[in-house]
Amino acid sequence: MKRLLLISVLCISPVPLATAQSLAPALLEPDARYKADVLVVVAHPDDDVLIGGYLARISLDEHKRVAVIYCTNGDGGGNDVGNEAGAALGQLRVLEARRALASLGIENVWFLGGHDTPGQNVLRSLDNWNHGLALDEIVRLVRITRPEVVITWLPDPVAGENHGDHQASSVLATEAFDLAADPTWFPEQVSPPRDRVGMSNLTEGLLPWQPQKLYFFTDAFENFSAYWHDPAELPGFRKTILDGTGPSYDTTTISPSRHVSYAQLEAEQQAFYRTQEGALGEKAIAGKNFKDFEFPVRLILGKTVLLASITGDVFEGVSADPIPFVQVEGYGHHPDGTNSLRFKIGDPWNFYSLFWRAHNLHGLLRMNPQPELAARYGDKLNIPLLACNNTQDAVEFAVTSTLPPGWSSQTSFTRYPVRPGECYPILAQVTAPGSGSGQWQQLTWSATAGSRQVGVVKVHVYLGNSGGLPQ
Ligand SMILES: [Zn+2]
Q: What separation in Å is there between the alpha carbon of 129 and the centre of ligand 1?
């Protein structure tokens, strides 16, 4: 045995000293083919059309690199041109979206496969998509695409079309904006692979990435009339909500590279979506009339981590060099304070009041201070309320409503027992009057506990005769 051991030791070649001191190869750069200047995060194929005039401008003429994430395949809704429905329709819409974006020079496009969730409640959509799984994917794609700018829907329950899926895509985009540079989130993504050319690597070799500016867009203003609503109802409805909140881009400008207006390029983009309102684009092209697409693209500056003006260009103030992680406020204190009683609007509005603070979206706290929603005449509405007891003693809340003429209440109870530390979820059920013309109305609920006035919740409802989604 001793002899054998001696032989084997002698067979090992001596390690030359020079090897230990030689220079290791430089690390590989992240794959430049997927670098984006702007990452767009939306819910459905065709959501991109609303900002299509702007995407055409920056992609075709400013030569910005644009990447797009769709959180769903668009597997809900009807099919304007065929029998394909559900998952099959989703597969068609994936190709429609790829072709629509390719017409604007955009090829880096991802689909996360969440299911279309009709409604206006962002939390239902997030639940249906598996929030954590979707966030994992979007953070991964932010780290792959390394965008300076993220553009997404408005995370705000404003009255308008305001699909819950649209809001969910913006909640996820905002979360990913704030988490992608934090290596403690999805750390497996930012851990180097053990052997990049080997098999079975279970860590991903990405780098943390901090985007710089977050922009929102919404259909709760005039130009959604082209897609969803009766234009006759528009006067006075949400025309000013976007004033002073961000830049606006004219779509009647002629594209220097394509020699047609950005509105026409947007119409051509729409025409690829034959399963859903593609006919609008086809009709505009056939008639050479692009007025339905000539609305300006208006963006809302959600936040910027560098110095930039609110209404300045999207790329104003953007640093060409990567920037380090920027910590947001997060959820760090009890928003209602201690030893208090609170009566307030429930979810999703309550969620948003926490979310905006946590993610430094202070502009949204001010943009639309009262809860609001859109409904049709005759609709039944479910208004969630919360009676919160942050004291040491059990309390009984008494809740009364004040409704405009023609409304009726079907709420089951008027008194609610609330133990210390509890928030009692109250579902106020009301029915709107049967007919009328488009107008804002205010519904009010107030709560008392014993002889104490606890609080008042006012909800603004836009009553119309068309549009709207189930709550
Ligand atoms: Zn949509």
A: 15
d(CA 165, ligand 1 centre) in Å: 7
Instruction: Say what the pTM is.
Output: 0.91
- If you measure from the C-alpha of residue 295 to the centroid of ligand 1, how many angstroms do you get, rounded to a whole number? 18
H helix or E strand, kind and range, residue 300: strand 300-304
16 Cα to the center of ligand 1, angstroms: 64
Q: Is the dihedral of CA 222, 225, 228, 234 positive or negative?
A: positive
Report the distance separating Cα 406 and Cα 449, nearest Å.
29
Q: Which amino acid is at 362?
A: H
CA 70 to ligand 1 center in whole angstroms? 10
Tokens 């009301």 -> residue: 430
Ligand 1 mean position to 155 CA, how many Å?
14
Q: How far is the CA of 137 from the centre of ligand 1 (A)?
A: 20
Identify which of 108, 126, 136 has the alpha carbon closest to the alpha carbon of residue 167. Answer: 126
Q: How many residues in total does the chain contain? A: 471
What does the pLDDT profile of the chain (471 residues) look like in tens digits?
A: 444 444 444 445 555 555 568 999 999 999 999 999 999 999 999 999 999 999 999 999 999 999 999 999 999 989 999 999 999 999 999 999 999 999 999 999 999 999 999 888 999 999 999 999 999 999 999 999 999 999 999 999 887 767 999 999 999 999 999 999 999 999 999 999 988 888 888 899 999 999 999 999 988 754 444 334 454 454 445 556 778 899 999 999 999 999 999 999 999 999 999 999 999 999 999 999 999 899 899 999 999 999 999 999 999 999 999 999 999 999 986 666 677 999 999 999 999 999 999 999 999 988 877 898 888 899 999 999 999 999 999 999 999 999 999 999 999 999 999 999 999 999 999 999 999 887 889 999 999 999 999 999 999 998 887 655 444
- Cα of 400 to ligand 1 centre, how many Å? 37
Q: Report yes or no: 351 and 409 within 8 Å, Cβ to Cβ.
A: no
How far apart are the CA of 52 and the centre of ligand 1, in A?
14
DSSP state of 83: S
Using the mean position of ligand 1's atoms as its centre, give its distance from the Cα of residue 211 in Å.
24
CA of 335 to the centre of ligand 1 (A): 32
What stretches of 67-180 show up as alpha helix (H) in DSSP? 86-102, 122-129, 131-145, 164-179
**431 CA distance to ligand 1 middle (Å):** 27
Taking the centre of ligand 1 as the mean of its atom positions, its distance from the CA of residue 33, in whole angstroms, is: 28
